[in-house]
Structure formats: C-alpha cells, structure tokens
Amino acid sequence: NRYIHHCYDVIIFCLNTLTNVVETSDSQQVIAGLEFVEPEPIIMTSSDVAYTNDFGGGSSKKVPAVKWLSRWLVSQTESYRDAVMKGKFGAKEEPNHRIIDEKAVVSEPEHQRDLEKHEEEFLVTAGNGFILLTCLMRHRGQCYSDEIDEAVQKLRKSVVSQMPQQTGVTLMIKTLKAFCNFYHFSIGDLSVAVVEPVMKLIVELEKI
C-alpha cells in the first residue's frame, strides 16, 4: 500500500483498460484461466528487528490472477472498511450530495464519517477494481454459452473467496456505493457519467 501513491494513475488506467476489454470482448474464459506468479516474501532480520521483504525473492507460487487481484483490492479498503460496512460512509447533508444507499442504517455515530485525505486514492482504486470484478462476474445475455457460464461461475468463486469472512459481495456493493458518493460529492452533477453505470452494476451485483 505504501507504493500505491507513486503509481496511482497507472493503476487506475490499467483497471479501466481491463474493464473496457472485458466489456467489449468475450474475454471471461481467458481471464478465468490466467494465473499470476506470486513471489513468497522473505522474512528478514536485522539485529533484533524482523521485517518482510515485499519484493519477494523466496519461492514462488501460481495463483489465479482474479483471486490475487481480489485480495489486493480488498487490502485497499482496510483503513475505512468498518465505516463502509456499518454506516452511510461519506453521506453528507449538502444539497449537491446524494445519498446512494437510502436504506443504510447507522448503528453508531462514529461510523458516519468522511474520507480522510489519504483514503481517497484507496477508495477510488478499490472502486475501479470492484467495477472490473463485477463486469467479470456478470452474465451478458448476448454472448451467453455453457462455456462462458462455467467461466463466470469460476470467476465468482475466486472473487468471493477473497472477500472478508462471510460477507460475500457485500463489501464490493458498499464500497461501490461509497465510490459513487465520493464522485457525486467531488464533482456534483458531472458525476452522472460515472455514477449511473456503476449503480446499474450494483443492481446486478446484488443479484449474485
């Protein structure tokens, strides 16, 4: 996470490009079969201090690319996850701000808070990533087949397996709603180009 600030624009560009590829081609079968070679980090010691070498260097293992991406995207929600899961994250009373999740209930006042400045990039990254995952997990009627259905089910299983325990796709849904709130509050009515398509994806995600 400490490296994300330095390559934030590149990450968003890559996520959006992959989303466009998924939406304009029959790529779910290919993506379902992709694997990522994940290096095992080495626990190194210096005097009395142990630390992890994030660049790997030990043995490596292959993991499904979607599973790895899902796990990484979940890690981007770490600092604000409780607020997203338990309340109207980012909900404001300003007239130009729309509360996306009208049915959300805030059980404790401390869960109704705004993004900290350093969390904005993490929310936008997770939001764009969850948009990609949702596109991978949904059926598109015009290209439905048994093979694609099998690929979609495999992708869904990979994604859900990396979500916080027993939450299914709830974290994705709530993060995407917070993502929409953030865009709407940041750029007002201009956000419709982003918010409306994402809200349609949320509806599909809620059916999974």
From TrEMBL:
InterPro entries: ARM-like (IPR011989). It comes from the Eukaryota. This is Uncharacterized protein.
